[in-house]
Design a protein that fits this description.
By secondary structure, the chain is an alpha/beta fold. The chain folds into two domains: about 100 residues, no CATH class; about 110 residues, Vaccinia Virus protein VP39 (Rossmann fold, 3-Layer(aba) Sandwich). Helix content is about 40%, strand content about 20%. It has a seven-stranded mixed sheet, with helices on both faces. α2 crosses α5. The longest helix is centred in the N-terminal third of the chain and has 14 residues. The chain is globular, with a radius of gyration of 17 Å. The termini are far apart. The structure holds S-adenosylmethionine. The site of S-adenosylmethionine has 22 residues, from β2, α6 and α9.
Length: about 240
Amino acid sequence: MIERIEQQHIGGSSTNKIRSFVVRSGRITIAQNRALEQLLPKYANLTEIRERIEHIKSTGNQVNLEIGLGDGKNLIHMAKENPNSIFLGSDVHLPGIGSTLNSLELHNINNVRVLVGDINDTLLSFGRIFQNIFIFFPDPWPKKRHNKRRLINREFLDLIAKKIKVDCKIYIATDCKDYATSILNVIEISKEIENSEGSWRVSKRPSWRLLTKFERRALQANSRVYEICCIPKNID
Ligand SMILES: C[S@@+](CC[C@H](N)C(=O)[O-])C[C@H]1O[C@@H](n2cnc3c(N)ncnc32)[C@H](O)[C@@H]1O
């Protein structure tokens, strides 16, 4: 089952693309496995997701995206707080997706949908629909030789820029100073996106974010968390 999902959605290491993740055949619980088997068709059906988005658009409510949903807790928290909006959660880590699916079913949450696979691929099938994009604690790839694997780079911002509404906000958090600097730099040189706080400035921690697993780790290690918020440039 897991192998089939990996092949179908994630592509594994068989392609030459530089990915921001490594597919690990790590431990998966029986409950996570069962959730992937039984609930993915309900929560990750692209046709249904597109129909939901069309409906949401017609009501004027928001379509939001969390990239790297992790254990899904923050995504579910945001969805509960904003029941009229839809929240798409993207990830490649199947145990985390399995846990998220179980929570969605357990709490009867119907405004969350899941995109399984590399966001660089899954985003391609969507238009300019997103109102808020959240990227909390993306893998930092701190070693110099791994920096090229970082999710947030120039090409990624170019892709994102094509998917956001004019009044969209992109919220990013990282505890890796070097990654924060490189993100601020790509925002600075972007033609389409700018820092909402002004050049090179970090923003305040959003009060609505649940303490995520990786944020907790950062705080336990006494690491500083850099919050970055960007918006589309107002180009006439
Ligand atoms: C360090 S974890 C942070 C998870 C969560 N946001 C948190 O703060 O606890 C980064 C997450 O991003 C996911 N990820 C990495 N590259 C991705 C990609 N290209 N597309 C979708 N998810 C990705 C990883 O699988 C992982 O779950």
